[in-house]
């Protein structure tokens, strides 16, 4: 098997539905075959299999690994890469073909889920940029230290609650998009805030907070000025708004002007220390994780992943 830099190792993370899985992959094959791209692919069985499959591709010598999936699949891929020695990681280039409801990191670069031909053309030109990763250092319920990297953002509080509600309502509605919007509506009328103590730069925030977003990139519109190549993280701290303010905040979020809201307090930093955030859920790149115990730190590692960007 030819495992050169010109041959792609693809991890295909399909959406739900047998027909959609088959049709989507057939379209991608047609686009790649038409361009003479050499590739081998494996398909993930579930959300927990991406890291295992990426590890398999790395150990089989692939230097170009393309994830057909959303933000959570990309998150698994970069965490897998960060487990490898730096020398191994330096030789590997990661790419994405967006294929999910949450494709925020792909959209940051201009990749369009409805334009596979353009995406594959760009990836075929192999324009590579070293990008930053955010890093969460925490302690789990067993008292063990852990770390998790992220490309897009970490959410603490209400936005992570919405992720949890989305998982629950999806069992009822079936549709990812319908469950997402129903979760937002439910949270608007059952919103709550959390007692937090945050240390950012030289400031200590000690008060009740609705949600915090720490963005290495756009953070689903909550950190719209963040970029994954300046060695900094953007932080949006949202105090509890009134109901009418909450609706106006949603409009500003959709229109890309989230930072203009009176309840949003933005920061730019290399490190955020969460000294206290009792009972506040944590979501990382669109995936809910177990709530860390006690204090945890969110920082940035500069230029650690080779990523293919539009040519």
Describe this structure in words.
The chain is built from 9 helices and 16 strands. By secondary structure, the protein is of the alpha+beta class. Strands 1, 2, 3, 4, 5, 6, 8, 9, 13 and 16 form a 10-stranded mixed beta sheet that branches. Strands 12-11-10-7-14-15 form a 6-stranded antiparallel beta sheet. Helix 2 crosses helix 3 and helix 7 (about 160-175) packs across helix 8. It is elongated, with a radius of gyration of 19 Å.
Short key terms for the protein model shown above:
6-stranded antiparallel β-sheet, alpha+beta, 311 residues, single chain, 10-stranded mixed β-sheet, 32% helix
Biggest sheet features: 10 strands, mixed
Proportion in β-strands: 25-35%
Structural class estimated from helices and strands: alpha+beta
Element-by-element helix/strand order? EHEHEHHEHHEEEHHEEEEHEEEEE
Radius of gyration: 19 Å
Our measurement of the CA-to-CA distance between the termini, rounded to an integer number of angstroms, reads: 28 Å
Give helix % range: 25-40%
Mean pLDDT: 84
Q: Can I get a quick summary?
A:
The protein has helices spanning 18-34, 50-59, 71-82, 86-90, 104-109, 116-124, 158-173, 176-189, 243-254, and strands spanning 7-12, 38-43, 64-69, 93-98, 127-139, 145-150, 153-157, 194-200, 203-209, 211-215, 233-238, 264-269, 271-277, 282-284, 287-289, 296-309.
Fold blueprint:
Layout: E1 7-12, H1 18-34, E2 38-43, H2 50-59, E3 64-69, H3 71-82, H4 86-90, E4 93-98, H5 104-109, H6 116-124, E5 127-139, E6 145-150, E7 153-157, H7 158-173, H8 176-189, E8 194-200, E9 203-209, E10 211-215, E11 233-238, H9 243-254, E12 264-269, E13 271-277, E14 282-284, E15 287-289, E16 296-309
Parallel strand pairs: 1-2, 1-3, 3-4, 4-16
Antiparallel strand pairs: 5-6, 5-16, 7-10, 7-14, 8-9, 8-13, 10-11, 11-12, 13-16, 14-15
Helix pairs in contact: 2-3, 7-8
């Amino acid at each position: 098997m030819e495992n050169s830099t010109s041959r792609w190792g693809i991890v295909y993370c399909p959406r739900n539905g047998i027909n959609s899985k088959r049709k989507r992959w057939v379209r991608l094959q047609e686009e790649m075959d038409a361009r003479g791209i050499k590739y081998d692919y494996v398909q993930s069985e579930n959300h927990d299999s991406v890291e295992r499959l990426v590890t398999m591709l790395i150990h089989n010598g692939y230097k170009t690994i393309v994830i057909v999936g959303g933000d959570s699949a990309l998150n698994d891929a970069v965490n897998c890469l960060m487990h490898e020695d730096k020398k191994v990681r330096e030789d590997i280039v990661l790419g994405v073909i967006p294929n999910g409801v949450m494709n925020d990191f792909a959209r940051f670069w201009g990749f369009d889920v409805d334009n596979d031909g353009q995406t594959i053309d760009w990836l075929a030109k192999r324009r590579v940029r070293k990008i930053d990763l955010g890093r969460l250092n925490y302690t789990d319920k067993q008292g063990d230290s852990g770390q998790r990297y992220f490309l897009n953002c970490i959410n603490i509080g209400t936005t992570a609650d919405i992720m949890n509600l989305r998982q629950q309502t999806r069992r009822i509605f079936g549709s990812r998009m319908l469950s997402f919007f129903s979760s937002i509506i439910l949270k608007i009328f059952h919103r709550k805030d959390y007692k937090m103590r945050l240390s950012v730069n030289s400031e200590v925030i000690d008060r009740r907070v609705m949600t915090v977003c720490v963005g290495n990139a756009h953070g689903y519109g909550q950190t719209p000025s963040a970029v994954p190549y300046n060695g900094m993280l953007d932080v949006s701290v949202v105090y509890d708004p009134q109901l009418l303010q909450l609706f106006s905040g949603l409009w500003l979020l959709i229109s890309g002007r989230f930072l203009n809201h009176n309840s949003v307090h933005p920061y730019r930093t290399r490190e955020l220390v969460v000294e206290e955030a009792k009972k506040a859920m944590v979501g990382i790149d669109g995936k809910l994780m177990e709530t860390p115990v006690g204090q945890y730190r969110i920082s940035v590692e500069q230029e650690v992943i080779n990523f293919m960007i539009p040519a």
